[in-house]
């Protein structure tokens, strides 16, 4: 089976775009979570968001540029976020009779489901992009 060089470049571009999209989606989801479920004042919210997203912010330049090492680090960082999301989703917690609490818990659960989806898509596409980045670089020469 021969691989057409243009198809690798096309696959890589698709994987790169989806990876970067999932990256910024995850940052936005974390910001949303800190803003609506975090402290009541603005500065603690921003500090909390910076602490939570600091792992992702370390690789922003390399990931947007399409560096292989950044894709690999992105996958490792996503594993940590995956563990936190799974732990939150399976912890359950007791649902009280208060309707406001139910709405907040329901909204937090949807927040984590969207985050989990972004993590899974980002991990899969980053793995593929890290594999295809060398092939795309060779065909573009």
Q: Write the H/E string, N to C.
A: HHHHHH
Q: Structural class of the helices, strands and pairings?
A: mainly alpha
Integer tally of domains: 1
Distance between the terminal alpha carbons, to the nearest Å?
Answer: 23 Å
What's the story with the biggest beta sheet? Answer: none
Mean pLDDT: 84
Q: What integer value in Å does the Rg equal?
A: 18 Å
- Which overall shape is indicated by the principal axes computed on the Cα atoms? elongated
Q: How would you describe the overall organization of this protein?
A:
The protein has 141 residues and is an all-alpha fold. The chain has one domain (5-140). 85% of the residues lie in helices and 0% in strands. The chain contains 6 helices and no strands. It has helices spanning 5-37, 42-52, 54-57, 60-65, 68-91, 99-140. The model has no long low-confidence stretch (mean pLDDT 84).
Topology:
Elements: H1 5-37, H2 42-52, H3 54-57, H4 60-65, H5 68-91, H6 99-140
Helix pairs in contact: 1-2, 1-6, 5-6
């Amino acid at each position: 089976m021969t691989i057409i060089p243009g198809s690798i470049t096309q696959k890589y571009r698709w994987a790169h775009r989806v990876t970067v999209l999932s990256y910024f989606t995850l940052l936005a989801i974390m910001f949303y979570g800190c803003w609506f479920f975090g402290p009541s004042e603005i500065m603690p919210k921003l500090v909390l968001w910076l602490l939570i997203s600091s792992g992702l912010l370390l690789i922003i330049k390399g990931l947007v540029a399409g560096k292989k090492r950044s894709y690999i680090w992105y996958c490792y960082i996503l594993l940590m976020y995956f563990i936190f999301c799974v732990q939150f989703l399976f912890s359950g917690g007791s649902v009280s009779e208060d309707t406001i609490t139910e709405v907040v818990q329901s909204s937090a659960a949807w927040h984590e489901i969207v985050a989990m989806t972004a993590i899974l898509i980002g991990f899969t596409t980053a793995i593929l992009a890290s594999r295809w980045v060398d092939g795309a670089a060779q065909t573009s020469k």
